[in-house]
Specification:
377 residues, alpha+beta, five-stranded mixed sheet, 10 helices, 10% strand
Length: 377
């Protein structure tokens, strides 16, 4: 299967041809004008015009084929100099080609072009027996060529720094986008797992009571209604973040430890007796840490409701000078071995690690599960 390269649009080709055409006109007209005061130089002729046009018009392909264009300008300029045509704008095409070639990263080709033109000019004059130049002139021309090369290198280094900074910004944007996707995924998991677990427990209770004690099923159905309503509100809030196209401030306060009492009362309606113990002086926390602390406690209680078969749990919060310590214990059934880590525990650990903290899930001597998170302040 053959493929053909799509040519650039007409407008782009016109813009790309503007510089070569303008330089060609300027070079030809300028050289004829400059030749009037240079009686010791070769008279302008058709070959001179052809050499000027080759150097100037070849710049049209400079950005797509820089090395061939560079050598076209080197050879045309060298022949022009050895023919001793009048001094004028002839060097402009060569200077532009060298600058662009080195700036695009073809450093070896650029310096070889400079050396070739310099050696060809000096050596060619000696071989052809053209007016011998003094050592001062030879050194002056060499200095000019070196300055041209070093200036091109400075432009290349500046271009590399700009490109590196752009890559760094792009990588940072991708990293932040990945972190934001992870945070949203964790939020969705925590919200859905917590509320669905409560709904599942309450639904089981309602099904158990609906035939035997219908009057006792109403509180369970009411709890299901409240849990589903809160789940929808939180899901709308999280989905709203995905729909935002700017960095506008959120319309609702970020969920944090100040919502813990509401979380505990909601969990108790699912049949789990929760005790909260606070050590130290409660104080405002950074938004990210406050949200992570709340989600860790929420997920810990969700795990107790879903898996521990416990009747009570204890939430301990310790405000220290350097860190915030969270500990959630339950009185579940005695189990042997280390706890199996699912999405819940791994998600909590990722939250703690993202803040530079740690999270452990261990069995107590009685076999119940203990979640301990240490979040640095």
């Amino acid at each position: 299967m053959s493929t053909t390269e799509t040519p650039p649009p007409l407008g782009a080709r016109v813009r790309r041809a503007a510089l070569p055409v303008a330089l060609a006109v300027f070079s030809v007209v300028g050289t004829f004008g400059a030749s009037r005061g240079q009686t010791d130089r070769h008279e302008p002729d058709l070959l001179m015009v052809v050499l000027l046009l080759i150097g100037s018009l070849s710049l049209y392909w400079l950005w797509t084929k820089p090395i061939p264009v560079l050598w076209a300008t080197v050879l045309s300029t060298l022949v022009y100099m050895l023919r001793e045509y009048p001094w004028g704008p002839v060097v402009f095409a060569f200077v532009i080609a060298v600058f662009t070639t080195i700036r695009l990263g073809h450093r070896l080709a650029g310096w070889l072009g400079l050396i070739t033109l310099y050696v060809g000019h000096v050596g060619g004059r000696m071989i052809l027996g053209i007016n011998e130049q003094g050592i001062y002139q030879v050194l002056l021309v060499g200095t000019c060529f070196c300055v041209l090369g070093f200036l091109a290198e400075l432009f290349r280094a500046h271009r590399d720094r700009v490109m590196a900074a752009a890559r760094t910004r792009k990588e940072e944007e991708l990293r932040r986008a990945g972190e934001e996707r992870l945070r949203i995924a964790q939020e969705l998991h925590d919200v859905v797992a917590h509320h669905i677990s409560l709904i599942n427990v309450q639904a089981s209770t309602a099904l158990h009571l609906v035939d035997r004690q219908p009057e006792q099923a109403a509180p369970a159905l009411s709890a299901i209604k409240d849990a589903s309503k809160e789940a929808l509100v939180e899901l709308r809030s999280i989905v709203g973040v995905l729909r935002q196209s700017d960095e506008s401030a959120p319309r609702q306060p970020v969920t944090g430890l100040d919502h813990l009492d509401h979380l505990i009362s909601r969990t108790e309606r699912a049949g789990l007796d929760v005790h909260k113990i606070v050590h130290g002086d409660p104080r405002p926390l950074p938004a990210g840490l406050d949200r992570a602390a709340f989600r860790i406690v929420q997920e810990s209680l969700t795990n107790v409701v879903r898996h521990a078969r416990a009747t009570s749990a204890t939430v301990r919060i310790q405000y220290g000078e350097q860190s915030l310590v969270l500990q959630v214990d339950d009185n579940g059934e005695s189990l042997a071995g280390a706890p199996k880590e699912g999405n819940g525990i791994s998600g909590m650990r990722e939250r703690a690690t993202a803040l530079g903290g740690t999270l452990t899930a261990n069995r107590t001597p009685t076999g119940s599960l203990r979640i301990t998170a240490t979040l640095p302040l």
